[in-house]
Amino acid sequence: MMHDAPTETKACLNCGKGLAGSYCSSCGQAAQSPLKPLLEFVQESLSEVLSLDGTQIRSLRALLTKPGLLSAEYLDGRRTHYVHPVRLFIVVGVVSYFVTTLFPEQRLLFSMGPVLFGSEAVGVEFLFLAAIIPVGALAHWIVLRRTIPFFLGHLVFVLHVVAFSFVLSPIEAVLSWATATRPVLSLVGLVAPLAWAGYWLAALSRVLGGTFREALKPALFIYILFVTFLGPFAWLVDSGWF
Length: 242
Hints:
Layout lengths: L37 H13 L3 H12 L3 H7 L9 H16 L21 H23 L6 H28 L12 H18 L3 H27 L4
Helix pairs in contact: 3-6, 4-6, 5-6, 5-8, 6-7, 7-8
């Protein structure tokens, strides 16, 4: 039979040093026992994932207002001031997904600019998402490998751009819901794809160190490769192979 352990310990469970406060003065680990009531564990887990500290706020602000800055900073080695790309991608994606599910009739695959493969099946959405990231990174690497030789750099860039599309997804769902009975306003649904396309071009120009116009040519080749690579996969899914 299991019993709840006490929430405070007299010695650090990580390094064994004596405790004089809420955290170990030697290694920094919290003084609480890892064995705790389930509700407390869930609350702590949600707090860890969703809490906004200075780094997270700075990262979200840069993601929303300065396209490409997070990727450029990561590639230049300045990483301590921002959330890791994978963590940012997961947190923004999870929050966006649950907000979007509040509008089930308008649920769409997360907006990917001009290439939209909408589906009502959650499994299909995640199949596309799983394909979009590596395929997008590969398309960027093929076109830009002389400027950014490492595939990881392109993967980080795509993670940041897709994270921004996660932010647009609830907005797109709300707009679709608000204009569902107003055909005249249905064009509002184009806002999210156009915003994503503009964001992608702006991010690309920042990472490449050029102008918006200079980013158009490589962006066109990347788009062609992306559609070429992803097209067969989209056809298989649409044909019911997945």
